[in-house]
Design brief:
Length: 134
């Protein structure tokens, strides 16, 4: 059993922003979970992690996404996210995706990791300064 996802980059315990069971509708032609499904949950988890710092955010870019291992139907997937950097109007969020294998829920494996940059915006969708810092 691994300790993936138990602590953030500062050594603090954390809970996943999202937990999902992967279903047959989420599969690709190879029978594994489609990467685009994971990307959408990664984006959501990152946006949730940005909420304590920002009023509303838009996704600007995913600077890096690495798929380490496949995800299978029935796996419970945990999406951990934390702020890595806060700029004047942007925030960079790190995301770690861990799967609890359906055949052995004690087996947790890192399946994907990503970095996402969001911009804090006002009601007119213009960049707005982020007041709360790390």
């Amino acid at each position: 059993m691994s300790d993936l996802g138990l602590v953030d980059g500062f050594g603090r315990p954390r809970n996943p922003e999202i937990r999902m069971t992967m279903m047959p509708r989420d599969t690709n032609a190879h029978g594994t979970i489609f990467g685009g499904v994971l990307l959408s949950y990664i984006d959501l988890a990152g946006a949730i992690a940005a909420r304590p710092y920002c009023d509303r955010v838009v996704t600007v870019k995913m600077t890096e996404v690495i798929f380490h291992q496949p995800v299978f139907v029935g796996d419970v997937v945990n999406f951990f996210a934390w702020p890595e950097r806060i700029g004047k109007t942007s925030i960079t969020i790190g995301v770690l995706v861990e799967a609890e294998r359906a055949e052995d829920s004690m087996l947790k494996v890192k399946v994907t990791e990503a970095q996402i940059v969001y911009v804090n915006i006002d009601e007119k969708r213009r960049p707005k300064p982020i007041k709360k810092k790390l």
